[in-house]
Every structure is written in C-alpha cells, then in structure tokens.
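so ive been stuck on this for like two days lol. basically i have the seq below and the ligand is S-adenosylmethionine, smiles is in there too. i just want the complex predicted, nothing fancy, no docking runs or whatever. if the output looks off dont worry ill sanity check it later, just need somthing to start from for the group meeting slides
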Amino acid sequence: MTVASDVRVPPENSDAAPSGPGDAASLESAANAARGTGKRDYVQQMFSDIAPRYDLLNHVLSLNIDKAWRVKALRALGWREAPRGTYLDVCAGTLDVGAMLSRQDGFGGFVVGADFAVPMLQHGAGKASRRVLSPVGADALALPLADASVDGAIVAFGIRNVADLDAGLRELRRVVRPGGRFVILEFSTPRIPLVRWGYHAYFHHVLPLIGRLVSGHRSAYTYLPMSVAQFPTGDDLADRMRRAGFATVTWQPLTLGIAAIHIGQVSA
Ligand SMILES: C[S@@+](CC[C@H](N)C(=O)[O-])C[C@H]1O[C@@H](n2cnc3c(N)ncnc32)[C@H](O)[C@@H]1O
C-alpha cells in the first residue's frame, strides 16, 4: 500500500498556548463552523491548537466511556474477516482507534491514520509502530488512496467535523473495496427526555467550561455541542450513507443514545 505523504514528526512544543482571535470572535467562528460556514479552516486550526490536551480531555470529559465505544466500533469493522488487510482510520486525530486496531489479538494487517491537523497525528505518533500504523497528513475529502484500496475504514468522532458530509461519505465509499465496511462512531442526541435533559446540561454547560480551562482554547468545547446539534443522527445519517453508495447500512445507539455506531457495507 502506498500513500502520497507520510507525516514528518518534528519535536513537540506541547505547552504552547493557543493564539488567535479573542473570545467573541472565536465563539462566532465556532458557531459559524458548526453551521458549515468557514468550517474547514476553523476545524483544522482548532484541532491543531488543542492537540496537546486532546487525549486528556477526551477521556476525562467522556468519563472514559469512549474507550468501550471504540472497542465496539472496531468489532463492527469486521477486520477478523481479513486480519492481514489494510484499514483506514480517517479523521484519526491522535490515532487512538488506529493504534487500538493494530494491537488487537490476531491482527496482522496495516493501518493508515489520516487527518488534516498534523499536530494531532504528531501527538499520537508514539502509540504504535510505523510498521503497522502510518500517520498521513490528508484531507478526508481528497484521500491519497486508490479506488477500492482498503479492506475497511473507520471514523471516530470525526465525520461530524468534515465540511461536506456527503462528499466525505462518497470519498470513503470510493476507497473501500467491494464487500468492505465503513464504520462511523459519533455522538448522537438521546431520545428519552430525562436523559436528553441531563445530556444537554452536561454537554452545553459543564463540558465547555472544563474544556476551556484545560485546553486553553476559547471555543473548541463550545463548538463540540453545537456541531453535534447540527449533525444528522440515526436514520437520517443512515440515509445519507445509502445515498453516498453504501449498499447495506445498519446502526445502533450506544449508552442511552449518547452516541451511535453506523455501519455501511460496499456491495460485493
Ligand atoms: C474529534 S477529533 C477525533 C479524533 C479521533 N478519531 C478520536 O477518536 O479521538 C476529529 C478529527 O477530525 C479531523 N478532521 C476533521 N475534518 C477533517 C478532514 N476534512 N480531513 C481530515 N481530518 C479531518 C480533525 O483534524 C480532528 O483531528
């Protein structure tokens, strides 16, 4: 498997304070990005800024539930059917999913971890050997991969951030081989009113406060709940996947509907 560009990993400057616009401007950019305006640039810059604190915040703010969700998503990928295959972890961030896949008992294949925020990849680079996991600086909308070149693809908490969802889904459909799967793990909105109320209170009030204090970023953790609110969930997302060309699409809610896994299969 060849990919266009392998990321160089220069020395980290992990405690660099994020720079950029003031509070009001940053929050306005986040709100616009969540609605789709200026999203690509905002998302790329924001994740580059918070990369040093991303892993810590991820696990703390999700109360570590995200680990169990990632395990389920990997199972849904069905990699055991082709354990020596090539898999794509797209919007890979700090490479948690790709590294987890490379460590699975019985896995003898190769993982490409693609993300356009190179500092995120740099912070995850030590999680697995380059012999099994290759970080690649690439845009999910223009992957440096041939048609039908991977046995399966997975995205965890990333597709919501892609500026053009339908184009992103089509691009993933393009690179997955016939019979292969594309798995999406993403936040969702719970249906049970009491759960939705608690989730809303936590997501819109507690999370932005802690996120801002720990990451130092003015709007990243305000953007998160806003982007989830704008993102299609459940059957809507499943329909969008079908329209992008996935032949069979199924989905399941996780933890009272806080998150969901969607599985799209390319026709064999
Ligand atoms: C919330 S993080 C998720 C990271 C990782 N998958 C995880 O499970 O922790 C979202 C990632 O998506 C990446 N991303 C968003 N849009 C992208 C695009 N168009 N191309 C590549 N990466 C993208 C961001 O740079 C960021 O690293």
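Residues 43-44, 47, 58, 91-93, 96-97, 115-117, 120, 139-141, 156-158, 161-162 surround S-adenosylmethionine (CB under 6 Å). The two ends are 21 Å apart (CA to CA).
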